[in-house]
Amino acid sequence: MSDSAAALRRGMILVVVCGCLISLLGFGIRSGFGLFLAPMSADLGWGREVFALAIAIQNLLWGLGQPLAGAVADRYGAGRVLAVGGVVYAAGVFLMAQATTPLAFHLSAGVLLGFGLSAASFSIVLASIARMVPEEKRSLAMGLGTAAGSLGQFIMVPLGQGFIDLYGWHTALILMSLFALLIVPLARPLRGRANAANMGPEQSFAEALREAGQHSGYLYLTAGFFVCGFHVAFIQTHLPAYVTDMGLDPQIGAWALALVGLFNIVGSLLAGYFGGLYSKKNLLSLIYFGRAAAIAVFIVVPISPTSVLVFSAAMGLLWLSTVPLTSGIVAQVFGPRYMATLFGIVFFSHQLGAFIGVWLGGSLYDATGSYQVVWWIGAALGVFAGLIHLPINERPAARLAAAVPD
Questions:
Q1: Where do the DSSP E strands lie in 123-281?
Q2: How many CB atoms lie within 10 A of CB 9?
Q3: 250 Cβ partners below 8 Å, 6+ apart?
C-alpha cells in the first residue's frame, strides 16, 4: 500500500470514528429530553403541551435548518458546520435549564436547540462518511454512524435519569450541556477533503435540486420519512410519561428509551449490512410494516414492565434502521456530491412528522387525558409508509449510469 493510500485510509477511519462519536453525543443527549417532561411540567406548573410544543418547534426548526446546514457543508466542509452546531446545541441545553416561562423555554429548547441540532446532527456526519468511504463499504459505514447514535441513546438516557435522580432536572441539563460541547473538538477531523473518486461526475447545485425534484422515488422517500419522524419523536418524548400514567415506575420509562437505543445499534448495523446486499426500498417497507405491527400489539395487550420493554426492544430494531437505508438510497441514486443538501430536504419531512407527532401527543393528551388515539394514528401511518416505498426506483440516475465505464 502506497503512503498516499495509507494516509487516505487513516483519514477515512478517523472521519468515521469522530463522526460516530458526534452522532453518539448529539443523538444521545436529545434522546433523553422526554425524561424532563414530567418533572419540569410539575415543578414549573405547566401543562404537558408547553413542553411538547417546545420539542415540536425544536424538531421543525431542526428540519428547516437541515437543508441550509447541508448546503453550507457541501460547499465549505462538514467540520466547520458541526463545530458551530455543537456550540449552539450546548447553549440551547444550558438555557433550557434556566427557563422559567413558557416563552423562554420555547426559545431555548425549541428555537436554539432546533437550529443547533440542524448543524450538529448525524445527517451532516453521514454525508461526510459517504464522501470519504468507497461505494462498496458506504452502506455499512453509514450503518455504523447511525448505530453510534443509538449507542448514545443507550448511554446518555440512563445517565440523564441518574443525574435527575441525584441532582434534579436543572443541574442534569447543565451537565448535559457540557457533554454537548465535546462535539466541537470532535468536528475538526471532518474538515478534511473528500475522496474525489467518490464524488461522481460534475453537477451544479441547481441541477442537483432539479434532478431530485423530478424523480418520483425521491418524492416517495420524502413522504415516507415523514412517518419515521412522527413515530420516533412521539415515542421518544411521550413514552416515559405514558409509562408513569399507566402506574409503572419512572425508571421503566428511562430503561425503555435506553433499550430502544441498545437494540437500535443492532438494527442500524443490520440495515447498513443488508442494505449493501439487498433492495434498500424493500427493506424500508418491511421496517415500516414492522413498526405498525409492534405499535398495534403494544396498545392492545395489557401494559406491564415486560410489555413495555419488549415493545422497546422491537421498536429499537426498527428505530433508526431507516436512516442508513434512506440516506443510502439518496447517495445511490444521486451520488454523494450534494448528499448533505438532498438528504437534508428529505430529513425536513422527517422533522415535520416529528413536529406533528410530538405536538399532537401533548395536545390530545391535554384534551382527552389519553395517548390512545395517537398510538393508533402511528400504526396507520406505518402501513402507509410501508406501501409508499414499494414503487421507488432505486437505480442510479441516468447521469451517474452514463459516467460508469463499460
A1: none
A2: 11
A3: 38, 161, 240, 243, 244
DSSP state of 333: H
Residue given cell 464522501 in the structure block? 131
What's the CA gap between 123 and 346, in Å, rounded? Answer: 10
CA 289 from centre of chain: 19
- Domains of the chain with bracketed CATH: 13-194+203-403 (1.20.1250.20)
DSSP secondary structure code for residue 184 in this structure = H
Amino acid at 14: L
Tell me if 86 sits within 8 A of 184, measured CB to CB: yes
| Residue 107 DSSP symbol | I
H runs (alpha helix) in 133-249: 135-167, 169-181, 183-186, 205-213, 216-245
Question: Which amino acid belongs to residue 97?
Answer: A
Q: Is the Cβ–Cβ distance between 21 and 84 less than 8 Å?
A: no
Q: What is the CA radius of gyration of the chain?
A: 20
* pTM assigned to the model: 0.75
Is residue 182 classed as helix, strand or coil in its secondary structure?
Answer: coil
Q: What is the DSSP letter of 106?
A: I
Mean pLDDT (10-residue bins), the chain, 406 residues: 63 83 90 85 84 84 85 82 94 93 93 92 78 74 79 84 92 95 90 53 76 88 93 88 86 84 86 87 96 96 93 91 88 81 87 87 86 94 96 81 52
- In the chain the first and final C-alpha atoms are separated, in Å, by 27
Q: Is the dihedral of CA 183, 185, 189, 194 positive or negative?
A: positive
Tell me what percent of the chain is helix, strand and coil, each rounded to the nearest 5.
85, 0, 15
- Contact criterion met (CB below 8 Å) for 169 and 34: no
Q: Please choose, from the candidates 358, 383, 312, the residue with its C-alpha nearest in 3D space to the C-alpha of residue 150.
A: 312
